[in-house]
């Protein structure tokens, strides 16, 4: 049974991690507690103990003990109806994380200047070892930018510029696997729903050095994304700029030119280079 991206096998006492040859020693109770937190974090509504038990297969007595521990530690909230939801504690802990990242320290100036200069929302996202994209810094003008794509959640790789950058720079086999597994859900009239068309679009990303989604994920919104690469062309982060469709048409060429330049500057600074900024 697959839960939150981890493999589990059912056992008498609930979930037991599959053993891997030469794998690290893990503590089952900690793994179970983390699984409960991930389930609650991804849930769209509070869950009952029974629902969590059905998802995890953890024995009822053990499950109650784990949940009581998480509630006592203020990681989980128990409502008056007994249902459970994630607390703000994990958010508070995670909010301290981005400022320590070199990509944020090097990139904050770049995204702030771009946002102010072109009146667009600019974000920095990191690429995790699991192949996910997580936004760690953003700069949005004080004036309104409509329909900026939400942070967090599952990435629609076929319909977002960040997703296309990820596909373009993953190892070829992994990229093909991601495209084959993608549900190709239609979000707007302009969403790419054909895998062959997506493959061509991803190949174009590598050729021109950036990706775009033009009203493909959100109506009347354009997003441009630029890869931040290591010297050996490994994708470590993504710089993206988002605005409403009509405003982006006015500044498109300038945003592309500057996005390409700034993503390379950030990459050089991360690798220890000392580029002379053109800005």
Helix content: 40-55%
Unreliable stretches: 1-19, 143-153
**What is the chain-wise order of helices and strands?**
EEEHHHEEHHEEHHHEEEH
Mean pLDDT across all amino acids: 86
Radius of gyration: 21 Å
Report the sheet-strand fraction. Answer: 15-25%
Q: Helical segment tally?
A: 9
The largest β sheet comes out as: 5 strands, antiparallel
Name the strands of the widest sheet in spatial order: 7-6-10-9-8
Could you explain how this protein is built, in words?
This protein has 279 residues and is an alpha+beta fold. 42% of the residues lie in helices and 20% in strands. The protein has 9 helices and 10 strands. It has helices spanning 28-42, 49-56, 60-72, 89-94, 102-118, 161-169, 172-181, 195-208, 245-270, and strands spanning 2-3, 6-11, 14-17, 76-78, 84-86, 121-127, 133-139, 211-214, 221-229, 235-244. The strands form 3 sheets. Strands 7-6-10-9-8 form a 5-stranded antiparallel sheet, with helices on both faces. Strands 1-2-3 form a 3-stranded antiparallel sheet, with helices on one face. The chain has a two-stranded antiparallel sheet with strand order 4-5. β6 and β7 form a beta hairpin. α6 (161-169) crosses α8 (195-208). The termini are far apart. Mean pLDDT is 86; it is low at 1-19 and 143-153.
């Amino acid at each position: 049974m697959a839960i939150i991206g981890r493999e589990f096998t059912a056992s008498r006492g609930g979930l037991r991690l599959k053993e891997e040859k030469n794998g690290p020693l893990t503590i089952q109770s900690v793994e179970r507690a983390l699984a409960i937190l991930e389930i609650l974090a991804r849930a769209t509504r509070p869950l009952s103990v029974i629902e969590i038990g059905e998802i995890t297969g953890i024995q009822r007595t053990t499950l109650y003990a784990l949940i009581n521990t998480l509630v006592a530690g203020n990681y989980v909230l128990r409502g008056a109806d007994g249902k459970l939801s994630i607390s703000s504690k994990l958010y508070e802990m995670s909010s301290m994380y981005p400022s320590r990242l070199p990509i944020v320290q090097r990139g904050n100036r770049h995204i702030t200047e771009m946002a102010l200069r072109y009146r667009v929302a600019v974000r920095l996202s990191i690429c995790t070892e699991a192949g996910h994209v997580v936004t760690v810094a953003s700069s949005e003008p004080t004036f309104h930018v409509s329909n900026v794509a939400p942070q967090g959640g599952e990435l629609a790789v076929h319909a977002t510029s960040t997703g296309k950058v990820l596909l373009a720079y993953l190892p070829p086999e992994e990229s093909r696997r991601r495209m084959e597994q993608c549900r190709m859900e239609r979000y707007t009239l302009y969403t790419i729903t054909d895998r062959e068309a997506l493959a061509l679009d991803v190949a174009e990303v590598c050729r021109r050095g950036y990706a775009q989604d033009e009203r493909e994920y959100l109506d009347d919104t354009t997003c441009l994304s630029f890869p931040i690469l290591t010297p050996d062309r490994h994708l470590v982060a993504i710089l993206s700029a988002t605005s409403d469709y009509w405003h982006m048409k006015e500044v498109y060429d300038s945003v592309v030119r500057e996005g390409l330049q700034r993503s390379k500057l950030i990459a050089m600074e991360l690798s220890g280079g000392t580029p002379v900024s053109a800005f």
